[in-house]
TrEMBL record:
Naturally occurring in which organism (per UniProt): Nakamurella panacisegetis
CDD domains in the cross-refs: AmyAc_OligoGlu_TS (cd11332)
Molecular function terms from GO: alpha-amylase activity
Taxonomic superkingdom: Bacteria
PANTHER family documented for this protein: ALPHA-AMYLASE FAMILY MEMBER, NEUTRAL AND BASIC AMINO ACID TRANSPORT PROTEIN RBAT
Protein name: Alpha-glucosidase
Gene Ontology BP terms: oligosaccharide catabolic process
Family indicated by similarity: Belongs to the glycosyl hydrolase 13 family.
Length: 524
């Protein structure tokens, strides 16, 4: 019998290359650093890696501003290093997914440079979204849209025209109604597919299509309301689906093992599911799950909604708790010992749910958000543009601690990491946790190993059990069960599970009870 495609149940580990491992000692992680840690990743027990962008980039937004989609930035290595990484990842029986940034290029991309050099109305400008301003002399932006990073979404060029950027001014938005743009990205897909990658994570997948009338917006909040129905001028418009149908045709030429993962912040589950129609994208991060917080009822609601909507389109669910854009979940759940305890329980729940899951580098070590990075060392454009009102995303991007007692904690052979590491990270290095069977690292390894062996886990059914308030419990397959206690006091095991054997406990458990802030896996 044909087994289900790998990605329907995959656990995918996100690598943020500049903060993962630094082989050349310049303080920035690089592709050769990733190569050197492939044994660690294989031993962790994940199925695939997703790498945030490592392409040529001026790094105005840490690589999400791409100046050449077919080359590697010198700070990360060379195209040959990328080829070697793809080959060696496969030799370790892991798959590799790369990031694709189609909403915008860098302002240093040849296309944008050509657009700046060409007159208004030219074909060069038509690849981006240039417009004349409002006001008597065009001195006001064409409309009232604001950038996700703060400030107006428009920047004026010397001849008086304005261009649109939903993110930093260094990230001009492409015009996806232009056939040249469509053709160029299909060619970029083929370039990386030919190099052997197993898929693409699509950045801001819900943002490519814009209202051609550029209508002013009344509610310019970043997230759509749950009631939204494709009527927002730039998020989640129906036209975006044409792009993905075209891409699906391209990727299907390479067999049925290569995938698209959408980064689509679309809270309406029905609208979200539309990205996962059989002729579009394969999977998408489930951000509603990430946002449910440490809350039994909210978590169960998201699980039910997700599974219901995705069943209708035939797509597997994927669950995610952390990434390079959000505060690490240990910290979101309260930080310190309590936050770590809850985070472990939440991970056990996530890995027991139907479908696939994402792990963000460092969460397997139980890392917390770094909150005390001095203002002058912070690099995220969100921070710069808002004069310190928002801390930005640097706190989850601090270079990983691998070994040793002081910075750079084995991140690189020498050198000062591009963001400072907390002085007290010695107990949280991969090396220290490797030596401690009670560590977060061993918890992840054990959970992933059990998940891999157990046919009830990954894609499949889920049957809720009756529980007390603040507790979730469910069965999967013939004999698997998971129970998680979100409350601050121990609870009795649900009656159905009293005779079951505990195979995984996120914190030490006495017989018959689920301790506070704890998840258990059981065999019935
Ligand atoms: O993120 C898009 C996105 O949704 C972010 O703006 C998100 O809202 C924000 O980071 C939350 O704090 C993607 C990338 O993941 C992000 O790193 C990039 O900055 C952004 O696209 C622009 O490319």
């Amino acid at each position: 019998a044909k087994t289900a495609p790998w990605w329907r149940s995959a656990v995918i580990y996100q690598i943020y290359p500049r903060s993962f491992a630094d082989a050349n000692g310049d303080g920035m992680g690089d592709l050769n650093g990733v190569r050197s840690r492939l044994p660690y990743l294989a031993a962790l027990g994940v199925d695939a890696l997703w790498l945030s962008p490592f392409y040529a980039s001026p790094q105005a937004d840490a690589g999400y501003d791409v100046s050449d989609y077919r080359d590697v930035d010198p700070s990360f290595g060379t195209l040959d290093d990328a080829r070697a990484l793809i080959r060696e990842t496969h030799e370790h029986h892991l798959r590799i997914v790369v990031d694709l940034v189609p909403n915008h290029t860098s302002d240093q991309h040849v296309w944008f440079q050509a657009a700046l050099a060409a007159p208004p109305g030219s074909a060069e400008r038509a690849r981006y979204i240039f417009r004349e301003g409002r006001g008597p002399t065009g001195e006001l932006p064409p409309n009232n849209w604001t950038s996700n990073f703060g400030g107006p979404a428009w920047t004026r060029v010397p001849d008086g025209s304005w261009y649109l950027h939903l993110f930093a001014p260094e990230q001009p938005d492409l015009d996806w109604t232009n056939p040249e743009v469509v053709a160029e990205f299909q060619s970029i897909l083929r370039f990386w597919l030919d190099l052997g990658v197993d898929g693409f994570r699509i950045d801001v997948a819900h943002g490519l299509a814009k209202d051609p009338a550029l209508t002013d917006i009344s509610d310019n909040g970043y997230l759509l309301t749950a009631a939204s129905n494709g009527d927002h001028p730039f998020w989640d418009r129906d036209e975006v689906h044409d792009v993905y149908r075209g891409w699906r045709e391209v990727i299907d030429e390479y067999g049925d093992d290569r995938i698209f993962v959408a980064e689509a912040w679309v809270p309406n589950p029905d609208r979200f599911a539309q990205y996962l129609r059989p002729d579009e994208l394969h999977t998408a991060f489930n951000f509603n799950y990430l946002q449910a917080g440490w809350d039994a009822a909210a978590t169960r609601k998201v699980i039910d909604q997700t599974l219901g909507e995705l069943r209708d389109v035939g797509a597997p669910a994927t669950w995610v708790l952390s990434n390079h854009d959000v505060v690490r979940h240990v910290t979101r759940y309260g930080g310190g010992d309590l936050g770590r305890r809850r985070a472990r329980a939440a991970t056990a729940l996530m890995l027991a749910l139907p479908g696939g899951a994402y792990i963000y580098q460092g969460e397997e070590l139980g890392l917390e958000e770094v909150l005390d990075i001095p203002a002058e060392l912070r690099q995220d454009p969100i921070f710069e543009q808002t004069n310190g009102e928002r801390l930005g995303r640097d706190g989850c991007r601090v270079p990983l601690p691998w070994s040793g007692a002081s910075a750079p904690f084995g991140f690189g052979p020498t050198g000062t990491p591009w963001l400072p590491q907390p002085a007290d990270w010695a107990a949280e290095t991969a090396e220290a946790e490797e030596a401690d069977p009670g560590s977060s690292l061993w918890f992840y390894r054990t959970a992933l190993a059990q998940r891999r062996r157990n046919p009830a886990l990954g894609e499949g059914d889920l049957r809720w059990l009756e529980t007390a308030e603040g507790v979730l419990a469910f069965r999967r397959g013939a004999d698997f069960a998971c129970v998680i206690n979100f409350t601050d006091a121990p609870v009795a095991l649900p009656t159905e599970l009293i005779r079951a054997a505990v195979t995984l406990a996120s914190s030490a458990a006495d017989e018959g009870v689920v301790p506070a802030a704890t998840a258990l896996w059981l065999t019935i």
